[in-house]
Structures are given as C-alpha cells and as structure tokens.
Amino acid sequence: MSAAEENPLLDEFTRKEYEFGFTTDIDADKLAPGLNEGVIRLISAKKNEPEWMLQWRLDAFRVWQGMEEPDWAHVNYEKPDYQAISYYSAPKSKVALGSLDEVDPELRATMDKLGISMEEQKRLSGVAVDFVMDSVSVATSFKDKLAELGIIFCSMSEAIQEHPELVRQHLGTVVPVKDNFFSALNSAVFTDGSFCYIPKGSRCPMELSTYFRINEAGTGQFERTLLIAEEGSYVSYLEGCTAPQRDENQLHAAVVELIAKDDAEIKYSTVQNWYPGDANGKGGVFNFVTKRGICETRAKISWTQVETGSAVTWKYPSCILKGDGSIGEFYSVAVTNNAQQADTGTKMIHLGANTHSTIISKGISAGNSQNSYRGLVQIGPRARNARNFSQCDSLLMTDTSGAHTFPYIETKNPTAHVEHEATTSRIGEDQIFYCLQRGLTEEQAIGLIVNGYAKEVLNKLPMEFAVEARKLLTISLEGSVG
Amino acid sequence: MLKIDNLHARIGDTEILKGLSLELGAGEVHAIMGPNGSGKSTLASILAGRDDYEVTEGSITFDGVDLLELDATERAVAGIFLAFQYPVEIPGVSNINFLRTALNSIREQREEAPLSGKDFLAKVKACAQLVELDGKLRDRSVNEGFSGGEKKRNEVFQMAMLEPKLAVLDETDSGLDIDALRIVAHGVNSMRGADRSFLVITHYQRLLDHIVPDFVHVLAGGRIVHSGGKELALELEEKGYDWIVDAQPTEQA
User: Fold this and answer.
1) Which of A115, A240, A373, B215 is buried most, with the most CB atoms less than 10 Å from its CB?
2) Residue B163 belongs to a domain with what CATH number?
3) What does pTM read for this prediction?
4) pLDDT tens for residues A248-265?
C-alpha cells in the first residue's frame, strides 16, 4: 500500500496548490534573454546610472565569466541556462507616484491578495513598506517621516542616483564581487533592491519592511540590498517574499550586505515563501542568496529567518565579528516539503576579542525533501575569549525525508569556547494523538507541535511578522505527517 | 450511554480483545481491574480512537452513535475524554494555549461560539483550583518537566476544562503518592454527576477507596470475566485475580 493510500489527508495536502500562485497582468518592459556586456550596458543605461556603476558591473561580469557554478551544497538541480534568462523587467508605468492612490489598480489588488495592503500596513502597524515588484520599486511610504531623522530608506536605483557617495563607499565591501559565483552574477546584473542608511545615534522608530515578488515568467531576480547602520544606531529590517506559480524554474540570486559600525545594532528578519514547485519540485524557485554582515566594535547583528519556500535553497546569512566585543546571532527555521531541497546555515567569523555568537537552527523536513544545516564557526588568532553556542535541531515529519547537519569549527585561539548541540527527532504520533484526543484537528495538532518546536526562533521575530510566520509554518506542513 | 458489544481487536497479528462486552449508564462510575496484559489500556485506546488497533468484530455505540465510525477528534467532540497513563510532552506549547486551542476547536465543531478570553481564564482558575495546579504549571509547556504526579493532575485539570460526557481514566493512580492520589480523586469526584460517566481503569484497589465505583469489572484474557459492586474491588485486593481467571474455561486456540 502506498503512503498516499494509507493517509488520504497526506495525499490531499501534499498536492495542495500554492496559495499565492497567481500572476498579475501588468505590461512589463522586458529585455530579451541572454547575458553579455551589451545587456549590462543596457541595464545601466535604462537606470541612468553613473559611469562608475557601469564599470563596477562590467568588472563583475568579467569576474563571473571566469567562475564555475559551485556544487558543494547538498542539493541536486539542473543548473540554469544563464543565457536563457531575461535580465531586466520593469513595470511600464514610469510616472512618479505621489501617493498610493496612483498605484496601478492591478498591483493594488495583488498586494491585497497577499494580505499586505499598504494602507493597512500603514494604519495598523506603522511599517514603512518598500514594495518591490519584479525589479523596480513602485511605491515607498513613510519616507518623509524617516527623512526627518536623517534615515534613508529607498530603492537601490534611487540610492545610486541620490546618494552615490554612500553607495560607492560601501557596495561590495562586505560581499566582494568575487566572493562566489552568484555574488559576481548579482553584481553584474542587479536591477534593484533596497538601500537603508541609519545616521549616527539614530534609533529607527519603525520596522523597515520590503516585500519581494517575482512576477515576470523567466525573469531572474537579482536583488541588491545594502544596509548601513552608523555608530550607535539601531534598525530592525523585515524582508518577506511570495511568488506566483510558474512552470519553469526561476532564479533568485540576491546579495544582502549589512554594515554595523561601532555600537550599532541591526536586526534582519526574513520570512521567505518563494514558490516551491509542484509535488516533484518542478517549476520552483532557485534561491541562491549571499547575505553577510560586518560588525565593528561592540556592534551586533541578528539574522532571523523563516524559510518555507523555494525548490532549492542555498543560503548562509553570516556575520564577520571584526570589532572587539561584537555579537552575531543567527536564528533559523527551515521547512522543506515534497521535493524541496534546502542547504542553509550561517558563518560566524570571529576576528575581534571577546566576540560572541549564537546559532539556533531548527530544520523541519516533510514529504521527500532534504534539509541540511551547514554552519561555520571560525575563531581567528586574535579573537581572545571568543564564545560560540550552536544548537541545531532537526524534526522529521516523514520517513522519506532527510535531515543533515554539517558543522565546521575552526579555532585558532586557545581561549575560545565553542559549544555545539544537535538533535534529530521524528514528530511523535503520540503527540499528535494526544492533541486529537483533546479535540484538535490533525492540521491544528501539527501546527501547534511545529510552532512549539520552532518557538525559540519565532519569538525573535517582530510581533506582526511572527503571526504571519506561524500561519505560514502551519500551511506549509498541513497533512504532511507520514 | 456507552455500549460495547462482543469487541474483538488486534494490534498486528496479536489479538488483544476477544469478545469484550460492557455497558455504562449515564452518571455511572465503572472500574475495570485486571492483571497486567489483560487488555485494559487497549480498551482505553480503542475508545479514544487510536488507529494502531484494528477492530475485527463487535461494536461500540455511544449515545446511539456508532463510535467506530468516528475519528479521534470527532470522539473528543462527541464528549469522550481519555486521561492518559503516560501523558506526552509537547515542547514549546504552553499548557494554557494548548487547552484554549482544544476547547475552541471542540466548540467550533459543535457550532458553538468560541469562549471569550475572560470566560476562558475564569474557567482555568476554577479548574486549576480543583486539582491544586500551580499557576506556573498552567503556563509551562504541556507536561514538559512535570513530575509524574503533576502530569496526572494536569490530565484531570484538562478533563475539568473540557467537561466530557465519558471520561476514561487509564491507570491515573500509577506513579501517584497518597497526597496526589487524594487530590486527583477529589477532582474526579467533584465532577461526578448525572450526565457524566467514568470508566476507571486501574491495577490497584487503593484508587477505588477514593473514587468509589458503582460497578467493578474484571478484565482478563481480553474479556470481562467477572462483574460486581464496589465490594468486588476489596475481594480482589485480598485474593488477587487468580481465583477468577482460573475459574474461566480454557480458551480454544
């Protein structure tokens, strides 16, 4: 008897359609597929970029041409044909928008469907939203209020025009162009993303939030985010993604750079729900992301991520703890279902003395998926009294899914304290039965148990985001015990 | 209210219940006693709807409904509660959140409005007092780090919150010291009423000193082999089970 026959619920839910699988019918200004110097010049010209930016892109392209796509991760996928991807797509309405009322009604409807209507966001939660649809930001709110505090929160394209000195000084300083295959590609062809600058001593009064969507079939998304927190400043940044259903693989290769100067603190939270593909993984998003932050003296960077989407995920939000007394944190929940594959984790590079890092990783594997944690804790020779605590837990929902842990620890200073704990468990039938006996439905039971398991991480998310993340976890795993 | 007729059940290739019949009226308290391995906990699991067991013959009706047609959740909604012998831990889920989800899920399925936060908390307070459950235990993760006695008190607390029509207590006395036993028994006794029946499964007579049953049944070899009033429990305590079990005709293979 097949697993599906044994559990009709399992069958029903594992074949459940992706809830956000709709597309928006907006005229797009799109470049023919292919990548060469001409395409890069065109992207740069369309965006009216300064010469230094074009040169930076071209240099990156030359570096990328000499690189090989990496294959060390515990994932299997058909490598994309980089010449079959269109590298630029922008919504056609080019008129600058003065208010939300001027936004294309179709776009507004899309936002409503996603449950992120901007006026609601504004009124209820005080979140400033920089909504990225395809590659160009179409609306930004709260900018004026932030401007009063000297905080800059805008699209990367706008930052290149309005604040070229800040961009030029910091871009590529945390994730160098040649860091890896995908960072080089991103550096050559990125079309947009977010830019954020918090001046010295400022505390950003609201959560800054960006929603990303892939909207154009066959369009690669190459977001570029740069976040600079000057001395003694604080910012909490939220990133959330959903993508519509597609038949072909969509490549997402973003680069995020965080710079926390002396005594600054950055909280970066992500809820990621890219389209995972059908039950066989067909059509899902490839998510190859490079995220890294650098901490100066006593600075702190916290990465929190809830990953439920994508067919293939390759993502290691990292911290370079350069300054003495700096702190890096990584809290992650990664869910894989059906044929999804995730290889995710973090790197904590301790360079300064008395640097501390914490890693809490919770993997959840369902269906036939493969879920790997890969983490590096590196203690440099000058990092006296560095400390790390890592906890990597895996929860298996089925006996056909896999959980893997690849911890790497490199210590070059004898005073370092590094602790690593790892557990793997099966979701208990006893736990589920206990819940059912108390009147919960199977979906409620799984939602409750999984959310309890992931609680330590979910508690790190800002309130509104945590609510959304809990729902997402439950939806992603409905009926997936087998 | 509950009628079990000629119930046969197996797990894998092992037949555990072999023609068990039992009838409970509304408001009655029945005790099931019996030697280890006689099928007591199997009966509790089958009543609650655990699908590890296969019922091969016989029927169970509850308030006129074929219980075997209902899944575990539906049985809970119908008013069946099982106090587990070994309550499981659910890390990261607060006891209070768990109960609220359970209570409102049952209410929703009965097409009743969810309980308001205020009413829910008032009920929690009253029910927790009944079994002297510490405030901290209410807020901690479900059964996580609870002592044996605390887990059992938590089961009775949940029972009081969910107000079942039929409560099945599976060896609720196991692992309890005498004080905890009194507390648990007090909780159960104060819930006795014309609309609520209890099936008390126990290995020892001492629980029945505190929860006095209307009827006592001896389960052996997968069948009820002897039934009587509360005095039967005392007799069993004194003489053991052998005199009843040995008096049964030898089973044909």
Assistant:
1) A373
2) 3.40.50.300
3) 0.80
4) 557 889 999 999 999 999
